[in-house]
Amino acid sequence: MKKKLLLSSLLLFIAAFSLVLLLLKEKNLFSEKETVDFTPSTVDTFQSLDNKKWEVREQFKLGRGYLLAQQVQPGSGTIKIELNNQTAAGGEIRTKEFFQYGQFEASIKTAHSPGSITGFFLYAPPDLYHEVDIEIFNERKSKVLFTIYENGKVAKQQEYPLPFDPTQEFHDYRMDVLPEETRFLIDGELIQSWKGNFSSQPMQLMINSWYPSWLEIEGPAPSATVIDKVSYRKY
């Protein structure tokens, strides 16, 4: 009799445990990172600007002004992108390598210059066809805009108010671009994800600070955007 009771209890426990596992899976509470097969990470801490990996945009019209090479200042362990509110000039760096799927993360402290943004994104021309964006507004009470462009239009977009001042400290911004899902994380916390395959062409990884035409410049730029570290790995 005791054996039958023990067997019944064991079966009930197994059934209950299986149900819990099923519920967890349905609610997506398991870490998906464990199932993603990435290549080893490439990490750049910018002790110098590696010209084999990175290029600086020389001169390119964007928004209210130009992206200029002179606005990008490599340092010992950081890259600074300076903004000029008088000329609306900004700057940009981008990888020479192209990516279709992968995991991309940057440690960034943004400039304090209301009316400008810092972008960490994947892009291939033409405009609005192949792009995955994290855009941070360069101001103390800030927000971030996550956007996916596909086939000439916005496919997905979400605005998120930041619970911190991005101009004061470094924070980690991450994109996971996968065949069946695109995820956006800040400081390791998943903020937004969209199911679906949005990537149809290899893209360059880019970081810039600039003045969009859809924002009004509200004053000088006393501090620069500073990039402390970038890591990326292909899927």
TrEMBL record:
The active site is at E131 (nucleophile), E135 (proton donor). Keywords: Glycosidase, Hydrolase. One of its GO terms (molecular function) is licheninase activity. It catalyses: Hydrolysis of (1->4)-beta-D-glucosidic linkages in beta-D-glucans containing (1->3)- and (1->4)-bonds. It is an enzyme of class 3 (hydrolase). Its EC number is 3.2.1.73. Gene3D superfamilies: 2.60.120.200. One of its GO terms (biological process) is carbohydrate metabolic process. It comes from the Bacteria. Residues 36-235 form the GH16 domain. This is Beta-glucanase. It comes from Pseudobacillus wudalianchiensis.
